[in-house]
Structures are given as C-alpha cells and as structure tokens.
Design goal:
The chain has one domain. Helix content is 26%, strand content 27%. It has 131 residues and is an alpha+beta fold. It is elongated, with a radius of gyration of 19 Å. The strands form two sheets. It has a three-stranded antiparallel beta sheet, with no helix packed on it. Strands 1-5 form a two-stranded antiparallel sheet. The protein contains three helices and five strands. Helix 1 packs across helix 2 and helix 2 packs across helix 3. A hairpin with a 6-residue loop joins strand 3 and strand 4.
C-alpha cells in the first residue's frame, strides 16, 4: 500500500493560526456578525475547516477580543448554560417590592454574555478588540 502524502495546503488550520487571523481581522475594525468574521478570517486562513460557531468560541478564548452578544426574546425555557460559550450561567438576583428575592437576569463570567429573563436568546454576535 502506498503511503498517503499530505501537503501543507490540505492540513486543517491550527487553532493558534486561527487566533492570529482573528486578531489581524479585528485590528482593521469591528466585525458585526459571526458570519462576517468567518468570511474575513477565511481570507487569511485558506485551510479553515471549522464552522462559524466554532470560530466564535475560539474568538471568545482570546483575551484581547471582546465578543458582544445581542439578545432577543426567547420562546424556549431560560437557559442554565451560556448560549455563547457553553459554560454555566450565574443568576442575577434582586429583591422585589414584597421583599422576595427574584431572578432578574443571567450572566456568564467567561464571555460576559448578559440576558434578562425576557430577552435571553442570542441573535447577533459582534467582535472587537479590547481597548
């Protein structure tokens, strides 16, 4: 059997290479959506073979990158894990007028996702470099 040769072009991009490309893209300015980020990173990394959702997760791991999650009303139940980075959410509590403690929102310590009890479903991700 002949040994299958692989060339540099056929290998999938390494995560570090993807992170460097994300930073290069964001140095040029803000990116207004997950798909736009994917398209722009694809120009730098020709062998990009991941989905836009995975690219968003990689971007959220970069300390210099700010991922802003815009939310809308959700029809499903309130989530226990972050819809953006899949880590556990912290409940934000407050006292109502009767003195009872109620949950008023949800936040993620890792990616800074925030959602109210009414508006928690993500509908747009924006990306920018931290100042």
């Amino acid at each position: 059997m002949a040994k299958k040769e692989t060339t540099k072009e056929s290998k999938p991009a390494a995560e570090q290479e993807i992170k460097e490309a994300i930073i290069k893209v964001l140095k040029k300015g803000k990116v207004e959506s997950q798909d736009e980020l994917y398209t722009k990173v694809k120009k730098f990394v020709k062998t990009l073979s991941i989905k836009p959702e995975r690219l968003r997760l990689i971007a959220s791991e970069i300390p210099e990158v700010n991922v802003i999650v815009e939310t809308k009303k959700g029809m499903l139940k309130v989530p226990d894990i972050c819809p953006s980075c899949h880590t556990e959410l912290t409940k934000i509590k407050a006292k109502n007028l009767c003195g009872e403690v109620v949950v008023v929102g949800l936040k993620c310590e890792k990616c800074k996702y925030y959602g109210s009890i009414r508006d928690f479903a993500p509908f747009r991700y924006r990306f920018e470099l931290k100042k």
